[in-house]
Amino acid sequence: MTAIIGLTGGIATGKSTVARLFAEAGCYVIDADQIARQAVRPKSSGLRQIVNEFGLKILTNTGELDRSKLGNLVFNDSNQMTKLNAIVQPIIRDLIKQAVAKAKLVQPRAIILDAPLLLEQHYESMVDVIVVVTVPENVQRDRLMVRNHLNGAQARARIASQMPLADKEKLADFVISNTGTIEATKQHVIELLDHLSDFSR
Ligand SMILES: CC(C)(COP(=O)(O)OP(=O)(O)OC[C@H]1O[C@@H](n2cnc3c(N)ncnc32)[C@H](O)[C@@H]1O)[C@@H](O)C(=O)NCCC(=O)NCCS
Ligand SMILES: Nc1ncnc2c1ncn2[C@@H]1O[C@H](COP(=O)(O)OP(=O)(O)OP(=O)(O)O)[C@@H](O)[C@H]1O
Description:
Helix content is about 55%, strand content about 15%. It has helices spanning about 15-25, 30-40, 45-55, 65-75, 80-105, 135-150, 150-160, 165-170, 180-200, and strands at about 5-10, 30, 110-115, 130-135, 175. The protein starts with a strand and ends with a helix. Belongs to the CoaE family.
C-alpha cells in the first residue's frame, strides 16, 4: 500500500523545497497551496462566498481574487482569518481527498501531502506519517522577507498566524531540518524514505 506522508512546517520553512526533493525521489506530491487556489478560481462557489463575506473590493479589476489584499487583511486580523478559513477549508479538504484518490491510482513510491495547515486544520487522519520541516525562527523570517518582499513586521504577522513551529515539531513523527544547504536537506529526505521503506517491507 502506498504510504501517505503529510508534509508540514511553518510558512517559508521550506515545505515546497522539500516536496520537490521528494518528487525527485519518485514520490507523488499534492500541493495544498495549489489546491487552495483551485478552491477560489474565477466563478467558483468559494470565490462567490469570499465576495459575499469581504465585499467586491477583494477582487482585482479582472474579477480574480486579489490575493495580496486578502493576505494583508487576514494575516493581520485573526477574526478575518477565521472567516476565510470557514469558507475555504471545507472546499480544500474535499479537493485534497479527490487528489489523494487520484494519486493512489499511479502507485508512486509515496504520496506527499504538502499542507501548511495540516496540523491546524486536522488533516492527520488523511496521512500515515507526519513530517515537519523546520528552521530557526530568524532564518524563517529572513527567507520569508526575501521571498515575499515583506518587511520584518509583515513577516512576523504571517509567522504568528500559524501554530508555533515548536508545537508542530512535538506532533511530528519525523522532523527535517532545512537550515543547511539544499543538498544536506536532500540527504535527510533520502534517509527518511529509506527508513520508511524498511518499515513497509
Ligand atoms: C490569504 C491568501 C489569499 C494569501 O495568498 P498568497 O498568494 O499571498 O499566499 P499563498 O496562498 O501562496 O500562501 C503562502 C503561505 O501562507 C500561509 N497560509 C496560507 N493560508 C493560511 C491560513 N489560512 N492560515 C495560516 N497560514 C496560511 C501558508 O504557510 C502558505 O504556504 C491565501 O493564502 C489563502 O487563500 N489562504 C486560505 C487558504 C488556505 O488555507 N491555504 C492553505 C492550504 S492548507
Ligand atoms: N536549504 C535552503 N537554503 C536556502 N534557502 C532555502 C532553503 N530551503 C528553502 N529556501 C528558500 O526559502 C524560501 C522558502 O522556501 P519554500 O518556498 O520551499 O517554503 P514553504 O515552506 O513551502 O513556504 P510556504 O509556507 O509559504 O508555502 C524560498 O525562497 C526557498 O528558495
